[in-house]
């Protein structure tokens, strides 16, 4: 089995590559990544060249993606622009990578008749009120940010290519991931590294927005289960029952890092900030027998904090520029 992993130098893509490398020793992995600010080849250090190769390339480039797809058995498509705040301030790269890029991936898998798994997000469903039922595979799409709208657009393209051209594809929509190697622009690593640099964690608005947290390794095992056992044409939601308010998460991080749990500050809210996400993952659990390994959020968080403590050289180069951007936004 030779798989092509787009976006494999990013946070979750590289977790998936390392996961497959360990779990499927007879598979060969080819990563295609354009190395935007979010991609980092250090995330893939230590992989043997006999089992892995890397192409620096853009999924929007037809010839590049065509050649890479022709040379594999299956594609797992992670590559995307992913940060909601960035999408609100500069949406164009999201339209390019998430919509045009996915179109090019679909055209290549159609031409070469290859299996595709498309990675998407729970944000395509919009947001929930606290008492609402969780998202499931039948929830209507209702995206709210340029990021989620472009991911929703990419899902619709995949669904249309399945129906119109019988492309052999599956889709997964996962909740908020955390774990090692996540860019410091994102909520959890930003707060950990703010504390490590001697500043206070920063909560958008009143801190009562809810996210449904899953460890990136559990996302990877879910994707592998779909790739091996999923039914072509189907969508699967991946989640680990990890709902927490942002305030609860910040308090846990402060507690685990030996700080006063009230030692955070409120900053300007994100425009259009989604209130709550929550995943009902019954389908993947019952049909594919998948279950998460990280069922205690605080254990996963403690492991993640340790990783950032021990890998300052990895995150330090991103930190100054990231905080300068946030400063401009008053966040
Ligand atoms: P990330 O921003 O850490 O990594 C994205 C990777 O894609 C980077 O390596 C980047 O260089 C690459 N990339 C971007 N545009 C590209 C292009 N045009 N051509 C080639 N490579 C390109 O993102 P992530 O958090 O690891 O997310 C990966 C995927 O998972 C995305 O599709 C995202 O929508 C989805 N997802 C993320 C989460 C989450 O909580 N982070 C949850 C559910 C789904
Ligand atoms: O739900 C899945 C999605 O989760 C993925 O599709 C996205 O790619 C990923 O970025 C993530 O989106 P969010 O907007 O939920 O994640 P983010 O880490 O940006 O923020 C998480 C929550 O924390 C959100 O309610 C905003 C808030 N926040 C964020 C930052 C950076 C803060 O309160 N303070 C902060 O400093």
β-strand percent reads 15-25%
CATH class type of the domain at 2-178 and 214-238 = Alpha Beta
CATH architecture of the domain at 2-178 and 214-238: 3-Layer(aba) Sandwich
Rg, alpha carbons: 19 Å
Helix run count: 11
**Lateral strand order in the biggest sheet:** 3-2-1-4-5-6-10
Describe the structure in your own words.
By secondary structure, this protein is α/β, with parallel strands linked by helices. It has a domain at 2-178 and 214-238: NAD(P)-binding Rossmann-like Domain (Rossmann fold, 3-Layer(aba) Sandwich). The chain is built from eleven helices and twelve strands. The protein has helices at residues 11-23, 62-70, 84-89, 92-112, 146-165, 187-196, 216-229, 246-256, 282-288, 297-310, 312-328; strands at 2-6, 28-33, 52-56, 74-77, 115-121, 169-174, 176-178, 202-204, 210-215, 235-238, 243-245, 265-267. The strands form three sheets. It has a seven-stranded parallel beta sheet, with helices on both faces. The protein has a three-stranded mixed beta sheet with strand order 7-9-11. It is globular and about 55 Å long.
């Amino acid at each position: 089995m030779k798989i092509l992993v787009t976006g494999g130098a990013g946070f979750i893509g590289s977790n998936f590559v390392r996961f497959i490398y360990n779990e499927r020793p007879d598979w060969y992995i080819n990563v295609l990544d354009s190395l935007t600010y979010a991609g980092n080849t250090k995330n893939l250090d230590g992989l043997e060249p006999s089992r892995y190769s890397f192409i620096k390339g853009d999924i929007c480039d037809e010839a590049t993606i065509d050649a890479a797809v022709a040379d594999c058995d299956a594609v797992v498509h992670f590559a995307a622009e992913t940060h909601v705040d960035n999408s609100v301030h500069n949406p164009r790269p999201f339209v390019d990578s998430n919509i045009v890029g996915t179109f090019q991936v679909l055209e290549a898998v159609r031409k070469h008749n290859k299996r595709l798994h498309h990675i998407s997000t729970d944000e395509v469903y919009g947001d929930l009120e606290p008492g609402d039922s969780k998202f499931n595979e039948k929830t209507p799409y209702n995206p709210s940010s340029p990021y989620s709208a472009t991911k929703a657009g990419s899902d619709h393209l995949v669904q249309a290519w399945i129906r119109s051209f019988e492309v052999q594809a599956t889709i997964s929509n996962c909740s908020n991931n955390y774990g090692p190697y996540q860019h410091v622009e994102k909520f959890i690593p930003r707060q950990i590294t703010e504390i490590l640099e001697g500043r206070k964690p920063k909560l958008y608005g009143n801190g009562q927005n809810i996210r449904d947290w899953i460890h990136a390794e559990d996302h990877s095992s879910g994707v592998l289960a779909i790739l091996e056992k999923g039914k072509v044409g189907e969508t699967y939601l991946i989640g680990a029952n990890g709902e927490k308010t942002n305030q609860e998460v910040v308090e846990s991080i402060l507690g685990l890092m030996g700080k006063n749990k009230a030692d955070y500050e409120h900053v300007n809210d994100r425009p259009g900030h989604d209130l709550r996400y929550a995943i009902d993952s019954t389908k993947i659990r019952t049909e594919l027998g998948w279950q998460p390994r990280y069922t205690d959020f605080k254990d996963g968080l403690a492991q993640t904090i340790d990783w950032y403590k021990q890998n300052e050289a990895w995150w330090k180069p991103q930190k100054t520029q990231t905080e300068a951007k946030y400063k401009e936004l008053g966040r």
